[in-house]
Design goal:
de novo design (two linked rop proteins); mainly alpha; 0% strand
């Protein structure tokens, strides 16, 4: 977080974005057979992973970033559960399930490592920096 200036630089956010794009492509192919409930849930949870990483980073404190990373990690689990539902209903096959679930598991592990790093880090975040006027 110290050298990262924008959330877009975080590899975990980039991978989350990639996962969201894959999910979006599946939705756009109408593989969910117009089951709007599962479409909304699976699209919502996959988007929530990347969105919570971004929101937590932008809040500017270590504590809030960790909190939002926790939400993001929770969304990874929610997405994996929805993938089981999609597979059980025949919307996706085993290969698609494995690919998507493995990406979600990888993201979850990356989030866990980032949280663990932040918990022991001296980094406090941008909002915790002392204010210094530009003319001093």
């Amino acid at each position: 977080m110290a050298s990262v200036k924008r959330f877009e630089e975080l590899q975990v956010w980039q991978l989350s974005r990639d996962l969201n794009k894959i999910i979006g492509e599946l939705i756009d192919k109408n593989i969910f057979n117009k089951n709007y409930r599962i479409i909304n849930q699976i699209e919502g949870s996959s988007g929530s992973i990347m969105d919570n990483i971004a929101e937590g980073f932008e809040r500017g404190t270590k504590g809030e970033f960790i909190q939002f990373l926790g939400y993001s990690k929770g969304s990874c689990g929610e997405l994996r559960s929805q993938l089981y539902r999609a597979k059980d209903r025949g919307y996706i096959n085993q290969e698609q399930f494995n690919e998507l679930a493995n990406i979600a598991i990888r993201i979850s592990a990356m989030i866990f490592k980032l949280i663990s790093y932040l918990q022991v880090s001296a980094i406090q975040g941008n909002r915790k920096k002392t204010f210094r006027p530009l003319d001093s």
